[in-house]
């Protein structure tokens, strides 16, 4: 494994050798061209070995038992938390493990819901927790480019509490309409939840600017960083948000583990989402008190093997270098954009430049349904995503039923861009639109 080759791109062949699945063939012996890392990334041997070693040598219930295996499992789990937190510039005490980013976002939405329920019941809340009480007259602000995971939980919260959901719209170029931000943010805004990098458009949003404006009116800021943490250097403290959510499986890690970073004072004031074992301080028949964060939000036996696998993924990414990965993806995206826009009848949905955009590249082929595009590409061994990408409002905004999406990562090379381009030409030939 190396960082940069003499061409300025990553040494992809060396990296690919670490990923067993990338050596297989598909569709009658065709080379696999995996361009669906935006949905889930592939896993290197180092991650697979870390999980296997835990089960083979240290498997026990974390934070339970006084025997050696339990001690080893707990040490490995908390070591993983430290390494993953450090990857985003945070202390371990500010990192909560969840099942995925969807659960992380729901955790925050339910903190509002639970605090509101208690306030309605007349329960005395700590002063800091009152910021999570929301109701009629209050507002939640999101954007039109959100993944459903960062939209539906807020819709549900508003339905339960009587708060109003508002959103920033999109420009024709696939950017946020920031001119409307000042009118949408008011003293009634309780929370602003925004995606850092769009999973469908590739747009990288100016979250620092949005966070500053939100904080000026006293709103809490949550960032969906699922498509940014795996692909670029990111320090959560520099992002300007109060809470940041992301998933492990999109950054070479296992499925079944997500992360929620929160500023210490914010986590301290949040009511828990799930309750049960591990997250408690004291338990009596009459009631219970809760442990401090992050344990307060980790009810039940935690996902130890997954956390250890994710820490191994972090180690791998750091060995390659996040700046190098970001530069590599930028070069691939630049090549892909130039190649696709040169094909007659192909339209990119989202920014047509590589300025403030990531490697998620959605496009349509005039005269061919995106699902049919994906089917032909699949027959050639090229794995892409088709559909609305859990971002249905975006497709409606741009008047398309769906898109075909290619997403690049550190194990993709220029040959994959060439394969995609040739594949789109074959789509047009097959469907007679050339």
Name the CATH superfamily assignment of the largest domain: Type I PLP-dependent aspartate aminotransferase-like (Major domain)
Helix content: 25-40%
Strand order of the largest sheet: 4-10-9-8-7-5-6
Record field, number of beta strands? 17
Distance between the termini: 41 Å
What quaternary form is this?
single chain
**Helices and strands: which structural class?**
alpha/beta
CATH first level of the largest domain:
Alpha Beta
Question: Helix tally?
Answer: 14
Percent range for β-strand residues: 15-25%
CATH architecture of the largest domain: 3-Layer(aba) Sandwich
Q: In words, what does this structure look like?
A:
The protein has 434 residues and is of the alpha/beta class. The chain folds into 2 domains: 12-31 and 321-430, Aspartate Aminotransferase, domain 1 (Alpha-Beta Complex); 51-318, Type I PLP-dependent aspartate aminotransferase-like (Major domain) (Aspartate Aminotransferase, domain 2). The protein contains 14 helices and 17 strands. The protein has helices spanning 12-16, 45-58, 68-87, 101-120, 152-161, 181-184, 207-216, 236-239, 264-269, 304-320, 322-341, 370-379, 392-397, 414-430; strands at 25-26, 30-31, 33-34, 95-98, 139-143, 164-168, 189-195, 220-224, 243-247, 258-262, 280-284, 287-290, 346-348, 360-365, 382-383, 385-387, 403-407. The chain has a 7-stranded mixed sheet with strand order 4-10-9-8-7-5-6, sandwiched between helices. A 4-stranded antiparallel sheet has the order 13-14-17-16. Strand 8 (220-224), helix 8 (236-239) and strand 9 (243-247) form a beta-alpha-beta unit. The longest helix is centred in the N-terminal third of the chain and has 20 residues, at 68-87. The chain starts with 11 loop residues before the first helix and ends with a helix.
